Amino acid sequence: MTRMIFVNLPVTDLAASMAFYEALGFTNNPQFTDETAACMVWSEAISVMLLTHDKWRTFTSRPIPPKTSSEVLLAISLDSRDAVDAMNKAASAHGGTADINPKQDLGFMYNRNLADPDGHVWEAFWMDVSAMPTADAH
C-alpha cells in the first residue's frame, strides 16, 4: 500500500473552506465527505481533511487554537514560480490571506506563505534542485 498523509484541519465554515481549497487546486473526494467533514485531495498520497469544530472534537479534547496562532506550516510544492504566485492570488481571492510572511527568492527556490480562512498556514514553493548550491560552493 502506498504511504499517504491526511492532514486534519478544524474549520469554522466547511463549505467556504472547501471552496477555498478547490480554488487552490485541491479536488474533493466525495467518498470521504459529508456535512461534518470534507476530504480535499492534493495528490495520490496527500489529502487534507477539513473537519467542522464539532467533528474535530470527536478526535481530541485539546483546544482549537485561535486563527491568529500557528502550530504548523505546511509546505506544498508547485511546478513553477508562476504557480506559486497564482496560488497566493487564489488564496487572497477566496477568503484566505496571501503573503503572511515575506516572500523568499533564493534563485533556485521561491516561496510565499498564505493562510486559509481559519488561519492554517501553507508555504507554496517552487524549487529547481539542479540549480541548488552545492556544499563545496561555500
From TrEMBL:
Q: Name one Pfam family in it.
A: Ble-like_N
The UniProt record lists the VOC domain at: 3-127
Record's signal peptide = none
- List all membrane-crossing ranges: none
Protein's name in the database? VOC domain-containing protein
Q: Which organism is it from?
A: Aerolutibacter ruishenii
